[in-house]
Prior knowledge:
Layout: H1 3-23, H2 30-59, H3 68-100, H4 108-133, H5 140-156, H6 162-178, H7 184-208
Helix pairs in contact: 2-3, 2-7, 4-5, 5-6, 5-7, 6-7
Amino acid sequence: MTTENTNHLEAIQDIRNMMKKSTRFLSLSGLSGVFAGIYALFAAYVSYLYCQSIINDMINGRSENIDANKIYLNFILIAACTLFLSIITAYYFSNRKAKRMGQNLFDDTAIRVLINLCIPLVAGGIFCLALLYHGSIVYIAPAMLLFYGLALINASKYTYDDIRYFGICEIVLGLINAFNLGNGLLYWAIGFGFLHIVYGATMWFKYEKGVHSKPVIKESEGTINF
């Protein structure tokens, strides 16, 4: 292959990389997935202890201490705290990665990712509240996994392809849970805890390990990646 042909191929590759960066949100950090999984596992453990305390009250004849509305509220608070910590952590690590790559965290592509992610998530959240309202608690965990998987697949076309496979795993797990009701907390811990950690660690080693070891200077300051 001549030098001229080699230069042409390199130019084409550069163009492809530029087009990918302009249409894909690549600042998503795998570390945020790892921490989200840790938060979820801790939340599942706290929820398990809380369930055990409720069962003990029932066994010991302290049913007067059991308030269904209070129980539901406590579980919602645990889930809300887990979600809040996950969002804050995702912002921190993704923003740090974007700075290292010399990119803006919130651009048009990031907004498209958020929109496509939030539509199924919001719909799923409202649906889960409806299940809670009608007392169909056993269906909440599989519904959360299913809608979360759909949200990941919906957003994956604007970011890493790996997220699509992560979403498929969540959907499969949710469907299995739908046929094995009564173990929702276990499946919730696997889907939002274990799978998040595996996915986050995989993403970090695959896309970020090299980035953190290279000095980066922003393009706006007339610099390049070394």
